[in-house]
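Record type: monomer structure entry
Structure origin: computed from sequence
Chain ID: A
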Amino acid sequence: MYRTHTCGELRLSDKGQSVTLAGWVQTIRKFGSITFIDLRDRYGITQLLLKENMNHLLDENPIGREFVLQVNGQVTARSNKNPDLPTGDIEIDITTYTILNKSQTPPFTIQDDTDGGDDLRMRFRYLDLRRNTVKKNLELRYRVSRIVRNYLDSHGFMDIETPYLIKSTPEGARDFVVPSRMNPGQFYALPQSPQTLKQLLMVSGYDKYYQIVRCFRDEDLRADRQPEFTQIDCEMSFVEQEDILRVFEGMIKEVLREIKGMEDPHPFPRMSWEDAMRDYGNDKPDIRFGMKLVNLDILAKKKGFRVFDEAELVVAITAKGCSEYSRKQLDELTAWVKRPQIGMMGLAYIKCHTDNTYKSSFDKFFDEKGLKEMASACQAQPGDLVLILAGKEAKTRKAMSELRLEMGNRSGLRKKEEFRALWVTDFPLFEYSEEERRWTALHHPFTSPRKEQIALMDQPDHFGEIKANAYDMVLNGNEIGGGSIRIFQKELQEKMFKALGMGEEEAQEKFGFLMGAFEYGAPPHGGIAFGFDRLCAILGGSESIRDFIAFPKNNSGRDMMLDAPALIDEKQLKELRLDTVNE
């Protein structure tokens, strides 16, 4: 046996036992004629002791960091106990050791506060994965996966795999495509999600399906995006929206209970899409704090201040207890909203002083009464700061949404260990694309309209009024899940495709298999998909899903470790009947 115990297993109750351990050398510390070695494996760290009579062996067989070592020895009590380690009360008095494999000096220190940058750690990801912080992230990911599987199994769901090589149906992000050697000139696509496949499973009678599944999207990346990602994908038959919300609210509560110890008997709050956009400026509101958006159009316009008078929207938030912000701090906020990512021309403010006086950045246009009216509309109290943006409606609302989150960060209101979830419902079914000059599906083309509005599907002038039978779950300002009750009748699905500007021939070519299935007794069905990577990142207190993926890509979509994507040789290109073009 290479080991009798792991490096995280032994305790003082094991004192006197002869044991064999194996692992990697974390550190070596020499103190005169004795040497201490920290040996690490997946389970923890155990201190080893080479006494004076054994220390000479290091001259014959020197040990370095990250060497793979096997040691035999006896468990003894440590004289200098380490309360930060589960094994901190004991050490191993080494009798023999074997170097199983040597190691070069690692390119960065393999510890929590490593000196390795992102690119270096991604290039040597197999070393980065040895760090305790990364290991804890993957352990949390595994725990969440196990809780989800157990919950869904207990509710009668069946785990069914769906294929990775499917037909390209471009609706949304770009597909990754795979050339077929056996079918020259033809291509598979990697699924952006198993959407149509899980609907076909409902037609097949598998009324409770789930899969923790890999999905693929060829899109530009940022900190919270990866070209391949994981979904908790679920579908149910003979259900209405309320059934879906009840089952999957229970699942997330179970995850929060098991991972964070949260017991909450209350149902998650629900908010319409229109209320979310009005009060928070986005459809994934962070409800850990207030600071709702307030429309100031009536009070701010027609006062001679062109910035407000010419704006489509004047909107404000109240930052509690921030009236003492200095000129430097206000200038920093102004520069923040002027950044290209936000794109505003400037920032206005009203300081509500504790002596019930008001000071603004636009005093010459408003008297004390006018400032007080605006502050009152924002429910500002003495000591508060009212921040105001003005401009084009959509852009200004989005900018204020971002400013609200920034002020939440600066005020310490977005606590990582506080978790607040809600459902957002009543989304529009369509949104109009000015670029494409047509209506597009806000979610996807298989989402059903509200029953009472199906008649409007034949009236393009009313498309903007139609609500979707759709819902999102939001956790701490992040959309972690989204779904809908699906269209399950061929006639309605054809109307949806027509509304999206898809002709009969195109619809048949792309989705004929689905509409054909609807002719054989498709049941009413609906489902939801959760972003598994994002859920794990939120639970782990991270801004990036990359920290919770074993082998992630960088922001350019490259695998730094494997150096992928890469060129393939001429023989493979010829077999696939492909050629490359040098630009």
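Annotation 1: The chain has a mean pLDDT of 94.
Annotation 2: Residues 147 and 255 are 6 Å apart (CA to CA).
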